[in-house]
What does this fold into?
Amino acid sequence: MKGIDNMSFCVKKLKKSYNKKVVLNDFDFKVETGKSVGLLGPNGAGKTTFIRCSTGLSKITGGEITFNGLDIKTNFVEYISNISVIFDKSHFYEDLSGRDNLKIVCNLKSCDVALIDKVSIEVGLEKRLDDRVRNYSYGMKKRLQVAASLLGSPKLIFLDETFSGLDINATTSFINMFDKIRKDNVSLVISTHNISVLDKLVDQVYIINNGRVVGFIEEDNIHDKVIEITCTQKELLKLIEHSKIQVELVKEEIDKIFLKVKDSVTMDLMHFIMNTNLKINNVKTLKYLEFYYSELLGEYSNDQIN
It folds into this structure.
């Protein structure tokens, strides 16, 4: 990870307690300017609490949170003016139009209402902006949330399960939308259980459990793959070594080996394995993030990671 001078958002030794129950403890987290960082962990790990603390919605018990050198405790107004958050559920006035709801947000953020048309185009809502929100679909309400978050030109946006409930097409559309947003030098912190979203949208991933950071994946490894090979003949490792394909043995069991490879050479390795004369019972490709998470926290289930 790069030096502190490159960090726009920095959390040090964060602690949060509710009625003497420690929810976050010794929590460190950093985001470089313009980077997209994922936050992954099981339900109850502390992800939403961390986001609430980072956006000023929950008072911290101890530690330090800064954005571009602005401390959340001593420079709150300036700090919060740079930040937006999108939670899972929307809270709009259903009988008002999307435009009127955004006007209210503009008033709260003291920003020009002329920005409403601009952000509505960015999120693909311009054709329905003057319709009542109660007539919006679930996905359209999500788009309205994104539009509201963009008003005021924030430099850091937190996404707390923003992709939850979206179908495959809508998820792809939202990934593309946020990819364009971050290209404007906007930093993103994305909390989600969806591995595919993280794989496509983030530069780094923090894995948390029980209120602590328990793992971290650097940008260089975020798109790596793990090849799980079921075989009884260990000669396969020697053959792969001689093939000069760059692999890393990350786990070995009685009848399985797990090899970490760069995404760019995954197909080369698969082709090589299939063309050996050895008996290969099964070959499975995993995202490294998926493998790393399961090794840290145990076998995942479908309700934890999609």
About this structure: The chain has a mean pLDDT of 91. The chain has ten helices and 14 strands. Residues 225-297 form a domain with the Alpha-Beta Plaits fold (CATH 3.30.70.260).
